[in-house]
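Progress report, Aim 2. The chain analyzed during this reporting quarter is listed below.
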Amino acid sequence: MKTILDEAKELSSQIVAWRRELHQFPELGLETPQTEAYICAALDSLGVPYRKGVGGHGVVALIEGRPGKCFTWRADCDGLPVVEQTPVDYASKNGCMHACGHDTHAAMALGAASLLMKHKDELNGTVKILFQPGEETGNGANAMIADGCLENPHTDFIVGLHAGSIAPHDWPAGTFGFYPGAFMSFLDSWQCTITGKGGHGAFPSLAVDPVLIAARVIDAWQSLVSREQSATKPMVLSVCKVRTPGAAFNIIPDTCVMNGTARALSEEERCRIEERMRNMAELIAEASGATAELVWTRGAANLVNDPAATEEVVAIGRELFGDEAFLRVPLPTTGGEDFAGYLLKGPGTFLLMYTPSSHGPTPQHSPRFEIDDGILWRGAAMAAGSAMTWLARHGR
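Predicted structure tokens for the chain:
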């Protein structure tokens, strides 16, 4: 008798085909109409009912068995504004890239939908699959939640998964990672504008140079992590863009604008780093005869995995794949995930799946990011198998 793993392996070539087709037309943020249309067409071919246009271009697939509870699996689908530099023949040509593996998430979810349709009559409840845009912009989950993705029927339990090389690199390919409790950081961004006094580059004494002041601010900010934050508590402050609007090579500009991100695992640390960044920037600017304005944008919440839910999902996964296939992630990460929004609404957990390329791991968000899509069947099997088992135990 075939197991769900056997069936998933047989589906591997189709999962790879879905992934490679999706990989060729990545779309950004909430504006993913072509991705939405592709997913809907694939669901149509599988006979899976769905609702489209959820939270913009999100899709909610529904596989209904007998009356019971609802298990939900989430797959994000958006790409990044990165020009692809991989040698594969299915590389994106539109100036954007699936450089974080969201094409794999969508393909695995389609694989799970295919598997679950074969076992629809065995389901002791309903499985809902969310195909979500806007993860990279941090607003996709909340947009879909506001549009009712967790209702009709009400989601009782939710699981998500991220593929790629963000798990420890000494793990075997295809290993799943888990972490109970606070796992991922708040996803905040900021902009700081230093306003000085412009002038000729040959006569700096007649100007107040905002670029020099910005450099002092950047240097001072680094002490917030290296000297004010406990070494046992992850925190990140990254200045990712510095620009001087309209400046020429021989003009000291009036303003210098910095943009970046700050990551912390607790609300207390989140508030503290914002306060200290603002205070330091304002005082350093004032000491130099300039002003500083820090605008803070709160993004996704920190991702906190329910410990009991995590334990249950890992136990189910180990029944499917064996004990060695599920390893605890050593430490929380300063990466962010808007899946946190779903976990604020009810129990669930977020997993990792290690999928390095055939020539080794490549970093997420890199133009050279690659994965081994020959093992994506494992993610599809995990989604379908965990849904079936959870409903069998909790469906009524």
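The CA atoms of residues 244 and 256 lie 5 Å apart. Residues 4-183+301-394 form a domain with the Aminopeptidase fold (CATH 3.40.630.10). These observations will guide the mutagenesis work planned for the next reporting period.
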